[in-house]
Write a structure and sequence with these properties.
The protein has 4 helices and 2 strands, in the order H-E-E-H-H-H. It has helices spanning 14-39, 62-75, 77-134, 138-173, and strands at residues 43-48, 54-59. By secondary structure, the protein is mainly α. A hairpin with a 5-residue loop joins strand 1 and strand 2 (54-59). The protein is elongated. A two-stranded antiparallel ribbon has the order 1-2. The N and C termini lie far apart (96 Å). This is MADS-box domain-containing protein. It is found in: Nucleus. Residues 1-61 form the MADS-box domain.
Length: 184
């Protein structure tokens, strides 16, 4: 008959909990001894009972390994402080970038709603304009055509002005070293 798997939760019965702790503690120390022997390693384990009493196992001994651990830990403290400082800075950067993403997503949502509203209005306007055009006579249609042609030409001229202005801004903002002439 095989062992059944126990659910990992605190044992409610106090005496059962103490018995389980005692058995598992000795099993834990046995495994620590095995890994120390098989792998030629130094091992230290400190376990506190449910009553708060400490139990320890160390190979070669706990005090020596704790002292060695503390010594190594002090040597790496400067590195750890630097690592923590860097991690804090990175965390702050990530938080700022996340906030920017949230802000941009909100702006995108607003623009999407605005775009949808404009498309709806544009559809209504097209329908209304089409109805108005159908009611015009030939003379009125010719006048409208001239006005639309003038409007088209004016808008084309304005687009070209903006493109030229943007090109000049790009040139003005470009690095001066790209456009310097050699004095040779």
């Amino acid at each position: 008959m095989g062992r059944r798997k126990l659910e990992m939760k605190t044992i409610a019965n106090n005496s059962s909990r103490l018995v389980t702790f005692s058995k598992r503690r000795s099993g834990l120390f046995k495994k620590a001894n095995e890994i120390s022997t098989l792998c030629a390693t130094e091992v230290a384990i400190v376990v506190f009972s449910p009553g708060g009493k400490p139990f320890s196992f160390g190979q070669p001994n706990v005090e020596k390994l704790v002292h060695l651990f503390q010594k190594k830990n002090r040597q790496h403290q400067h590195f750890d402080d630097f690592t923590l400082s860097t991690a804090k800075i990175n965390r702050e950067r990530i938080n700022k970038l996340n906030q920017k993403v949230i802000d941009l997503e909100a702006k995108i949502e607003i623009e999407n709603r605005r775009s949808k509203m404009l498309e709806e209005q544009q559809g209504k306007c097209k329908f209304e304009i089409k109805q108005l055009i159908e009611e015009l006579d030939l003379d009125q249609l010719l006048k409208l055509q001239k006005k639309l042609q003038h409007l088209f030409e004016e808008s084309t001229r304005r687009v070209k002005e903006h493109e030229a202005s943007n090109s000049l801004l790009l040139l003005a903002n470009a690095s001066p070293s790209k456009f310097e002439l050699s004095n040779g």
